[in-house]
Amino acid sequence: MAQPTALIVDDDANFRESLELLVRREDFATRTAGSLAEARAKLAASPVDVLLLDLTLPDGDGLAWSREDPAAANAEVIVITGSTSVETAVNALRGGALDYLTKPIDRARLSTALMNVARTRALKREVGSLRGELRDLGRFGRLVGRSKPMLDVYDLIARVAPTDASVLITGESGTGKELVAETIHMASPRRDRVLLPVNCGAVSPNLIESELFGHERGSFTGAEKQRKGYFERANGGTLFLDEVTEMPLELQVKLLRVLETGHIVRVGGSDPIRVDVRVVAATNRNAEEAVRSGQLREDLFYRLNVFPIALPPLRAREGDVELLAEHFLRELNRESDTHKRWSRVALDRIRTNAWTGNVRELHNAVRRAYILGGDEIGPETIPCSDAPPPERSGGPALEVKVGTSIAKMEERLILATLDLTEGDKKKAAEILGISLKTLYNRLNVYAASGVLAARGGVEGLRSATRQ
Predict the structure, then answer these.
(1) Statement: residue 465 has pLDDT above 50
(2) What mean pLDDT is predicted for residues 79-103?
(3) Which long-range contacts link 449-456 to residues 24+ away (Cβ below 8 Å)?
(4) Are 127 and 158 in contact (CB under 8 A)?
(5) Residue 77's Cα: distance from chain center in Å?
(6) CA distance 100 to 81
(7) Same structural domain for residues 204 and 234?
(8) DSSP category for residue 106
(9) Domain range spanning residue 86?
């Protein structure tokens, strides 16, 4: 295999010389340039595999040039900057850079970035070819759909998967955010390592720090032995933080520090532990509104939102409902070695239903229809869900005193909404604009703290943790 080539573009001659020595130690052939004009001339003479590129050069913006110059477009880009701001890093990665390095250069970080060059180039070719084939089939990984919004999502996944950029997936409950995270992982250089999902809303606030970062023996009551957390267990792979806006604010500070430094400290420990983990996060809330309301730290939002992917609701995916229904039925037939099929009238009902619960609701409806239907599944097996969603206003006013904590306000609002719906948790979740899973998680916390036991008169609340 030919030796890979790097072009170092920086106007500081001493820095260029020292970086060139480090790059050569990683078994790269090197060339250098002190300006964009010189870099253009070097690339015109011979292409390179990677550009190590200063952002600010005497004759222009290095990153902008790398995107505009056709000769530079075929090379991977590693940005070099003297700035450590989040905005600089985010702009570089969104602009197509493979990675970014800050001055002075960390040799271990440089080595990792250069090791990723060959893998990334091969993956981009593979993913690009796969994307072209699967667009026609309406598939990408386990994602199914050929509507324009979904093809746009496939394009974004194909762009970001071969990189190490953090991704924030947003979308309504049931749209398939975890499948997007899985597809990103499987199309990335980390696909041979583990993908670990963590539901930030399902873990007790008292235990989530230990779950994420691990703990030392004796660090708290019940910690009888040392335990590795999700970050250590996902080392070399991908960590999927689902419902990240449900994470306690005090833990968000610690998560931000891990993303900035690449080190974790176990609960009860003092020694930092290096971890190499890609973070993909998801939320069914509007993340920017969560920042404005104080539920999500702004600095953490910018760290997670390096590459945003907005997943469309099923109602915005014209033509995908029938495609998904056929796909789910084929899966069930394959699992049970059957040959059931939809009647035309059943497919018409599926196509015209509202599916406010998105793909998850459709999947569950197909499974129910498969169980109830014969060889040809008729419309009577499909629940009619074309009614508009419940109104999100119109209930009694809820007075809150200034100085009340956000957690207490949320608790009162959830319980008052359950009173309004007479314990109907599905309807309450829809009114609140949260997933049913998040509502159950909150009720579990309230039950553990004794809040529900103190509320006599709403039987549905008492049984919340049993349903």
Answers:
(1) no
(2) 75
(3) 451/411, 451/415, 455/415
(4) yes
(5) 23
(6) 7
(7) yes
(8) P
(9) 5-122
Tokens of 453: 């036991």
Q: In the block, which residue shows the tokens 């703290």?
A: 449
Answering whether pTM is above 0.70, one says: no
- Say how many domains are in the chain: 4
What is the spatial distance between Cα 160 and Cα 238, in angstroms, rounded to a whole number? 13
CA distance 161 to 402: 45
Are residues 300 and 356 located together in one domain of the fold?
A: no
Helices (DSSP H) in 30-85: which residue ranges? 36-45, 62-68, 70-73
Do residue 96 and residue 29 come from a single domain? yes
State phi, psi for 319 to the nearest 5 degrees. Answer: 90, -10
Q: Are 295 and 327 found together in one domain?
A: no
For 151-277, list the strands marked E by DSSP.
Answer: 167-170, 195-199, 238-242, 263-264, 273-274
Length of the chain, in residues:
467
CATH at residue 372:
1.10.8.60
Residue 338 domain flag: yes
The reply to whether 92 and 22 lie within a common domain is: yes
Whether 98 contacts 306, CB under 8 Å: no
Residues 218, 251: one domain? Answer: yes
* Least confident range of 14-18, 20-24, 126-130, 225-229: 126-130
